[in-house]
Amino acid sequence: MSVDDDIQKAASLIKEGGLVAFPTETVYGLGANAYDDKAVAAIFEAKGRPQFNPLIVHVATVEAAREVVHFNAMAEVLAKQFWPGPLTFVLPRKDKRVSYLVSAGLETLAVRMPSHLIANKFLAACEVPVAAPSANISGRVSPTRYEHVAEALADKVGMILDGGASEVGLESTVVDLTTEVPVLLRAGGVTLEDLEKVLGQKVIVSGESAPAAPRSPGQLLSHYAPSLPVRINAEYAREGEAFLGFGKCEGATLNLSKSGDLKEAAANLFAFLRLLDKAEDFSGIAVAPIPSVGIGLAINDRLRRAARR
User: Fold this and answer.
1) Domain stops at, among 154, 172, 205
2) What's the pTM value of the predicted model, to 2 decimals?
3) Which of 152, 192, 145, 144 is nearest to 171 (CA)?
4) Mean pLDDT for back-to-back runs of 10 residues, the chain (309 residues)
5) What is the extent of the structural domain holding 74?
6) Are residues 24 and 60 both part of a single domain?
7) CATH number at residue 290
């Protein structure tokens, strides 16, 4: 069966109310028809996900996004610059058909247009908006390869589309555009500096405390967690710990980027955490300091959440 045949089969499953795991440039997503309450509920059941944590609506075109949410001037500027790509907007709901399970009962929706070719073809073939969180057990390390999804959810999805390794390796940046001053709710591949440069104004960074009702995915304090305890900003490994290094550091079990390239580190983060978590020789994972600049802000956000138990 060809890739195009697989895409058509996957799209048919979505229309029939099934679940499909699909690749994006960020991580693999677990998709369902955003109009179908039962299908969306099946996402929460498959992941063991708290139902107050919203999902992202994925679309194939900017025009499709405009049908789901009310675009404003900031959304138009950011979409022109960064879509398709790893950037999610939170905007007022327009399409009343989208299940309120997707938005956790809120009158806003998170929406994005992925740049991954297979994801884009799949979403276009679905002909409905697709609600999708990351394709993993809730709170666990996000999947960046087909085998990561198969390991966790193979018996809970109708199909897994294989798109190779995710290029970005971190979930999308999420920015709330419902206020006069935009708010960065989750750091990701599009950096705070990128947003401020394109918008020509300051973007507020949401505080570390999780809100009582999160406005987007990724705002729970404990998230992205391996089963082993994670210790961040470590200069070395303690007895029994694996050492996840960065840059020029000695004694690293694995190194996110020996050259100190933050983009390479982001792409490797979840895959390396998974490898160390599965190793039988370690009782914990120590992670070297990561610079909090550019995409390093997103990496440290994920690591802080992984370290909370």
Assistant:
1) 205
2) 0.80
3) 144
4) 94 97 97 94 81 85 98 98 97 94 87 98 98 91 95 94 94 94 92 96 74 52 74 96 95 96 85 89 96 84 82
5) 3-205
6) yes
7) 3.40.50.11030
